[in-house]
């Protein structure tokens, strides 16, 4: 509650990236355009990520963590971070640092007017095969959801926390955040070009199944849910 922005960093077996995360995020926080903190969510890592996270949080006053007893996946880690956030805004960045924490300031400029502000990876530094998979998956998702989002997989986003807490979470939800925000009354999305970098440490957790096949199946689940999504506005109350 002492911050305007909580930056969620899901972590799964990223021990090689933890020193860089501490350095980059530690340098960014004092320069952020709003008061911000970091919330690591350890997703049941089997390497030394969690002990390293605890050490980082002990050394830095604006760093916090929660940890899962078991690996539950990216969507679960994001939900846990959002559930525990009490700041007006909640952000998200991947632990691989393929996007720059400094670029959160590009998103902060628009966050008062948009419940979700998200990056578009400019000059993407991935392999041609990864780019092809993402292009196919993004095209199919746009056709099914009509969210108009160019790069839903960009791991740099800021949301209004109250909107984020109303998102119906399910495995694979992270791919549909823009569409799920747009379902809500007043939901709007702003897309902003951000920098992208090659992974320099650790191993990617994505492959053909969870980048291409599973998202296709999830699109049909989204279409089913969209017709049944509940919106309401409280007109009056006497709650104290």
Please give a structural write-up.
With 240 residues, the chain is α/β, with parallel strands linked by helices. 36% of the residues lie in helices and 17% in strands. It is built from 8 helices and 7 strands. A 7-stranded mixed sheet has the order 3-2-1-4-6-5-7, sandwiched between helices. Helix 5 packs parallel to helix 8. The radius of gyration is 17 Å and the shape is globular.
Quantity of strands, as a count: 7
Strand content: 15-25%
User: What's the shape?
Assistant: globular
Order of helices and strands: EHEHEHEHEHEHHEH
Distance between the termini: 20 Å
Task: Give a quick summary of the entry.
This protein has helices spanning 18-28, 49-59, 74-84, 104-108, 128-145, 161-165, 177-182, 208-226, and strands at 5-11, 36-42, 63-67, 89-93, 116-121, 156-160, 189-194. It has 240 residues and is an alpha/beta fold. The protein is globular, with a radius of gyration of 17 Å.
């Amino acid at each position: 509650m002492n911050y305007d922005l909580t930056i969620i960093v899901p972590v799964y077996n990223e021990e090689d990236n933890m020193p860089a995360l501490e350095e980059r995020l530690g340098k960014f926080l004092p320069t952020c355009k709003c008061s911000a903190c970091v919330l690591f969510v350890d997703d049941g890592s089997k390497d030394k990520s969690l002990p390293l996270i605890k050490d980082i949080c002990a050394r830095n006053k604006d760093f916090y963590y929660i940890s899962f007893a078991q690996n539950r996946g990216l969507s679960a880690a994001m939900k846990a971070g959002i559930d525990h956030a009490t700041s007006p805004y909640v952000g998200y960045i991947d632990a691989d640092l393929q996007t720059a924490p400094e670029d959160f300031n590009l998103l902060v400029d628009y966050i008062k007017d948009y419940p979700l502000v998200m990056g578009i990876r400019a000059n993407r530094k991935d392999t041609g095969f990864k780019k092809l998979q993402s292009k196919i998956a993004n095209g199919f998702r746009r056709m099914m959801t009509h969210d108009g989002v160019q790069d839903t997989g960009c791991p740099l986003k800021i949301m209004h926390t109250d909107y984020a807490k109303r998102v119906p979470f399910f495995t694979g939800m992270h791919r549909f955040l823009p569409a799920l925000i747009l379902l809500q009354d007043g939901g709007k999305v702003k897309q902003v070009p951000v920098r992208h970098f090659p992974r320099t440490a650790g191993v990617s957790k994505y492959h053909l199944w969870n980048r291409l096949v599973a998202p296709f199946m999830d699109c049909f689940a989204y279409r089913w849910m969209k017709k049944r999504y509940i919106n309401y506005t409280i007109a009056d109350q006497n709650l104290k």
